[in-house]
C-alpha cells in the first residue's frame, strides 16, 4: 500500500536519508524531475514514482485512447452517457496526477514546463468539447468530437513518457534538415512530372484499364510519387514502354534519382541528426546521474580523517530504502564491492557508482548434490559413472545431438507418407529419450526439469503419451528442432545480431507509442473526413451501388474493382488497418481517390519518411554500439569481486543450472558474522546476461566511461541547457558542489 509505505518511511528514516534515497533512485532510473526537498515533498515524490501509480496512469491513458472504439462511429457502440462517464473519470485521474506532480515540484518550474501546460489545456479542451457535444446531442444536432485528436497528448506529456518525448524531440530537431532535402526532392519530382507530361501527354496513350495516360499534370505528380515507393512499378511504366522501349530510360533515371538517391539522403540526414541529438540526450542523462549521486553523497557524508565518507550503517540503510526487494546477501556483496578494503565506510569515488551497481541484476545458482550421490555414492562415484557423466557434459555430446536434430528437421520436411520416414521419427524419439535419461543421470533432476528447461519437460511428457495422432508427434519434433536456435547463437557474428535484436525490444515500445500517437491522430482525422463515404457489402449483395462500395463516384475505379470496400474510415479499428496498409505502401495508391490523396501523402511523409527512418537510425546505432562493445567487453566490478570471493561460476558451467533471481530465500545461507561464506552452502553468484540491457544503457555506459570518476559534472541548470554543439562544461570543485 503506497500511503502506508510512505508513512513508515517518514517515521523510521531521517529526512537526509530519505532525500538521498530519492536522489539515488532518480539516478538509477534516469529521472530528471526537479522536486522539492522538504520531507513532505520527498514523501510525495516517492509516492509519485511508485510503480502502482505509474501503471495506474498508463491504464487510464490507454483507456482514454480506447474510448474511440466505443464512441460514434464505433466498433462496439456504447451509450453516450457510458463513454462520457469514462472519459470524465480519465480526465479526473489525469488532473489528480498533475496536481500530485505540482505538489512535489517548484511552482516556477512547474508552470515553465511545456508538458504540464499541454496537459492542462488538453483537459480543458476535452471537458469543453464533451459538454458542447452533449448539449448539441440533446437537441439532435450532429457535431464533431474534435477534442479526440488531443487525447494522445496525455500519452506524450506525462513524466512517465520521457522516452516518447525524446523520440518527438528527435523528430522536431531533424525537421529543419529534412525540409531542405524534401524541397529538393519535390523539385525533382515536379521536374520529372513536367518532362513526363511533354513526353507522353500528346501521344494519346492509354493504361491497361483504358484510361488516359499521363495527360493531367497533378495525376502525373501523384503517380510518380507513388513510383518512388515502388508500389505501382512496373504498371505505371508499361504504356510508355509498350510504345517505345527507349522510354524505359526515363523511368530508370527517375527511380535512380528519387527512390535510391533521395530516399537514401532522407535516411542519412535523419540518422546524422538523430545521432547528434541522441548523444546530447545521453550526455545529459550521464551528467544528471553523476550530479544526483554527488548530491546524495553530500547529504550523508561524514568526516573520516582527511576525507568525507558514508558510514557502512548509513550505506546499508540507503540501499535497503532504494531497493527494498534486494536480499541481505546481495546488499552484502554490493558493500564488499563499494568497501573493497572493509574499512567500515564507502568513499565518494565508490559511492557514485551505487546507481550502476543497483542496475546490475545478480542471480545465484544453487548447487545441489544428485540424489544418486546420496543414495548410492559408491555406484555414482565409480570410474564408469564418472566417465559417462563426463561424456554427457562434454561439448561433443551437445554437438552430436544438434546434428541429430538437424537431420530430424530434414526428415520432417520430407514426405510423411513414406514408411521409412515414419519409422525414422520413432528412432529420433528413442534418441531423444536416451538423451533425457543420460542428462537426468548426470544433472540434478530438479535443475534439469527447472523452469528454464521447457524442451526437456515437453519431450518427456509427450514420450509418455500414447500417440494416436501423427500430428502430436510432429509437434513434439518441431519443438525440439527449435533448439537449433542455440547453434546460431553460438556463432560470434550471429551473437552480435541476436544481442542487438534483444536489446532493441524495450525501445521498440517507445516507437510503438510514437506510432500509436500518429495512428490515433490520423485515424480520428480520417474518420471525421471520410466516415460513411465507403460501405462494405458482401460479395453476393444486390444492394444499389454495391459494386461501387456504396459510392457512385467510385464506379470503374481501381478501388472498387479491387474490392477494397472494407478499407474505410467508418470506425476506429478499420482506420488503423487502412493506416497500416499505407505504412507498408504496397498497393497503397489504389486506396486514395481525388482530394483524399493529400491526406494519404501527408501520412506517408510523416510515418514512412520521418518516423520509419528514425526507427531505422535507431537500429543502426544499436547495432554499432553492440558491435563495438562486443569487441571491448571487460569484467565488471561485481564479476571481479565474485571471482575474488571464490563464489563465481564460468559460462561453460551453466548448462543446466537453476537460476534463483535476486537471491530469493537464500540470504541466511550466505550471511554470518564475517559477512560472506564462500560456497559453504553450495551457492555461487553470477551476473545476469549482458544481453538484457537497453541500448540507452549501453550508450550511457560508453559516454560515462569518458567521464573521470572524480568529475562531478556541471550543475543541474547547466546540464539542462546543454546543446548538441556545446562543449562539456568544466565541473565545479568539490567545495562548491557541497
UniProtKB/TrEMBL annotation:
List cellular component terms (GO): membrane
Decide whether keyword Transmembrane is in the record.
yes
Q: Where is this region: Disordered?
A: 718-738
What membrane topology term does the record carry? Multi-pass membrane protein
Highest taxon of the lineage: Eukaryota
| Parts of the chain that traverse the membrane | 52-70, 76-96, 117-136, 178-197, 246-274, 396-414, 420-441, 501-525, 598-624
Q: What is this protein called?
A: Ion transport domain-containing protein
UniProt gene name: LOC116994493
Amino acid at each position: 500500500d503506497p500511503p502506508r509505505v510512505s508513512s513508515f518511511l517518514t517515521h523510521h528514516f531521517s529526512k537526509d536519508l530519505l532525500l538521498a534515497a530519492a536522489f539515488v533512485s532518480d539516478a538509477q532510473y534516469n529521472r530528471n524531475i526537479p522536486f522539492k526537498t522538504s520531507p513532505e515533498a520527498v514523501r510525495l515524490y516517492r509516492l509519485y514514482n511508485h510503480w502502482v501509480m505509474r501503471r495506474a496512469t498508463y491504464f487510464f491513458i490507454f483507456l482514454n485512447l480506447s474510448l474511440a472504439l466505443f464512441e460514434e462511429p464505433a466498433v462496439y457502440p456504447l451509450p453516450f452517457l457510458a463513454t462520457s462517464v469514462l472519459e470524465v473519470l480519465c480526465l479526473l485521474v489525469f488532473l489528480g496526477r498533475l496536481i500530485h506532480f505540482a505538489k512535489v515540484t517548484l511552482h516556477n518550474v512547474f508552470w515553465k514546463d511545456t508538458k504540464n501546460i499541454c496537459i492542462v489545456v488538453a483537459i480543458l479542451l476535452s471537458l469543453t468539447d464533451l459538454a458542447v457535444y452533449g448539449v448539441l446531442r440533446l437537441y439532435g444536432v450532429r457535431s464533431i468530437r474534435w477534442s479526440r485528436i488531443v487525447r494522445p497528448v496525455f500519452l506524450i506529456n506525462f513524466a512517465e513518457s520521457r522516452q516518447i518525448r525524446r523520440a518527438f524531440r528527435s523528430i522536431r530537431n531533424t525537421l529543419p534538415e529534412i525540409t531542405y532535402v524534401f524541397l529538393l526532392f519535390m523539385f525533382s519530382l515536379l521536374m520529372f512530372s513536367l518532362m513526363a507530361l511533354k513526353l507522353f501527354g500528346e501521344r494519346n496513350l492509354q493504361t491497361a484499364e483504358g484510361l488516359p495516360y499521363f495527360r493531367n499534370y497533378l495525376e502525373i505528380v501523384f503517380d510518380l510519387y507513388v513510383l518512388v515507393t515502388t508500389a505501382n512499378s512496373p504498371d505505371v511504366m508499361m504504356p510508355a514502354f509498350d510504345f517505345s522501349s527507349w522510354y524505359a530510360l526515363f523511368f530508370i533515371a527517375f527511380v535512380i534519382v528519387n527512390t535510391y538517391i533521395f530516399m537514401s539522403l532522407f535516411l542519412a540526414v535523419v540518422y546524422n541528426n538523430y545521432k547528434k541529438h541522441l548523444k546530447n540526450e545521453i550526455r545529459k542523462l550521464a551528467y544528471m546521474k553523476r550530479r544526483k549521486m554527488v548530491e546524495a553523497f553530500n547529504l550523508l557524508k561524514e568526516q573520516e580523517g582527511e576525507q568525507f565518507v558514508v558510514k557502512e550503517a548509513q550505506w546499508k540503510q540507503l540501499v535497503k530504502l532504494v531497493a527494498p526487494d534486494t536480499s541481505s546477501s546481495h546488499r552484502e556483496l554490493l558493500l564488499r564491492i563499494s568497501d573493497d578494503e572493509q574499512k567500515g565506510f564507502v568513499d565518494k569515488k565508490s559511492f557514485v557508482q551505487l546507481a550502476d551497481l543497483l542496475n546490475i541484476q545478480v542471480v545465484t545458482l544453487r548447487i545441489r548434490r544428485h540424489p544418486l550421490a546420496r543414495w548410492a555414492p559408491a555406484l555414482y562415484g565409480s570410474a564408469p559413472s564418472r566417465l559417462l557423466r563426463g561424456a554427457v557434459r562434454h561439448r561433443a555430446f551437445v554437438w552430436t545431438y544438434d546434428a541429430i536434430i538437424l537431420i530430424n528437421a530434414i526428415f520432417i520436411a520430407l514426405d510423411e507418407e513414406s514408411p521409412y520416414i515414419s519409422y525414422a521419427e520413432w528412432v529420433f524419439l528413442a534418441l531423444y529419450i536416451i538423451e533425457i535419461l543420460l542428462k537426468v543421470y548426470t544433472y540434478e533432476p530438479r535443475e534439469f526439469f527447472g523452469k528454464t528447461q521447457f524442451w526437456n519437460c515437453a519431450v518427456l511428457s509427450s514420450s509418455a503419451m500414447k500417440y494416436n495422432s501423427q500430428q502430436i508427434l510432429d509437434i513434439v519434433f518441431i519443438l525440439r528442432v527449435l533448439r537449433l536456435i542455440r547453434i546460431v547463437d553460438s556463432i560470434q557474428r550471429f551473437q552480435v545480431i541476436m544481442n542487438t535484436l534483444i536489446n532493441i525490444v524495450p525501445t521498440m515500445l517507445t516507437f510503438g507509442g510514437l506510432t500509436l500517437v500518429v495512428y490515433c491522430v490520423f485515424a480520428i482525422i480520417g474518420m471525421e473526413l471520410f466516415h460513411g463515404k465507403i460501405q462494405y457489402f458482401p460479395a453476393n449483395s444486390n444492394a444499389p451501388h454495391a459494386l461501387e462500395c456504396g459510392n457512385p463516384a467510385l464506379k470503374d475505379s481501381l478501388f472498387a474493382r479491387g474490392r477494397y470496400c472494407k478499407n474505410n474510415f467508418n470506425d476506429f479499428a478499420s482506420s488503423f488497418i487502412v493506416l497500416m496498409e499505407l505504412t507498408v505502401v504496397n498497393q497503397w495508391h489504389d486506396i486514395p481517390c481525388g482530394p483524399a490523396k493529400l491526406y494519404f501523402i501527408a501520412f506517408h511523409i510523416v510515418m514512412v519518411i520521418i518516423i520509419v527512418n528514425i526507427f531505422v537510425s535507431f537500429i543502426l546505432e544499436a547495432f554499432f554500439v553492440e558491435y563495438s562493445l562486443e569487441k571491448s567487453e571487460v569484467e565488471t566490478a561485481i564479476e571481479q569481486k565474485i571471482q575474488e570471493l571464490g563464489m563465481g561460476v564460468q559460462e561453460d558451467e551453466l548448462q543446466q543450472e537453476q537460476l534463483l533471481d535476486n537471491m530469493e530465500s537464500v540470504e541466511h545461507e550466505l550471511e554470518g558474522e564475517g559477512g560472506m561464506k564462500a560456497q559453504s552452502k553450495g551457492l555461487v553468484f553470477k551476473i545476469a546476461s549482458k544481453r538484457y540491457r537497453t541500448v540507452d544503457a549501453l550508450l550511457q555506459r560508453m559516454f560515462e566511461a569518458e567521464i573521470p570518476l572524480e568529475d562531478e559534472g556541471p550543475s543541474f541548470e547547466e546540464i539542462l541547457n546543454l546543446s548538441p554543439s556545446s562543449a562539456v562544461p568544466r565541473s565545479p570543485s568539490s567545495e562548491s558542489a557541497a
